[in-house]
Amino acid sequence: MSTVLIVVALIVLVAVMGAALYFWRSRSRGLGGPALQRRFGPEYDLTVARHGGDTEAAERELAGRVERFGHLRSRPLVPETRARYAERWEALQKRFVDAPREAVTEAGELLAGLAQERGFPAATAYEDQDQAAALSVHHPENVDAYRRIRRAARPEGAGTSTEELRTALLEARGLFDELITEGRRGHRAHRRHDDRAAAHGDRHLPRARHSLKPKGSGI
User: Fold this and answer.
1) Same-domain status, 104 and 51
2) Is the pLDDT assigned to residue 181 strictly greater than 80?
3) Do residues 60 and 152 share a domain?
4) Per residue in 58-69, pLDDT tens?
5) Which residues of 45-72 are buried (b: 16+ CB within 10 A; e: fewer)?
6) Residues 91 and 127 in one domain
7) pTM
């Protein structure tokens, strides 16, 4: 066997051993298939779909996210900061009536800034992969709503309908609530407060003035 073939064989062997070690470490830390499904919920299925049904590739990506961002711990918000974000969200909801795209753009920027304030990686105007990946580890139920509202605000999302923008804003509220509260207990309390609130909350977000939906068609 030539020297070149020996070198190639060694490289392949090292790569196979490295992959095997990675999977062994991931599974030993509870990052294997069932554990990943439990941890990521709908995000697991979405990642498998993005990989064309390749479960192994999807699980490698998800395990990698846990390795990179699982150690993150949310920084607390002081009451003044929490109040400021809450006021901004209420204001942009009202702004949606006359300027839906601008309101959605502001909502995406607000979520990105709030996530950074809580200790997640920073996001620029159009590059938020690390922030989304980190959010998926800690807020898997709502991270796809974050992606959708960020996409809707980008230039390539200019064709998004008013109703789609409205839906994106409504769904993004779930992540906003999780980020602005200190934990699941606070989140549930916050939602109970919203349920008792007057009809100016996000569940009654009015349609944009130029929406084509007829009056009385419901939310």
Assistant:
1) no
2) yes
3) no
4) 999 999 999 999
5) ebbbeeeeeeeeebbbbbbebbeebeee
6) yes
7) 0.69
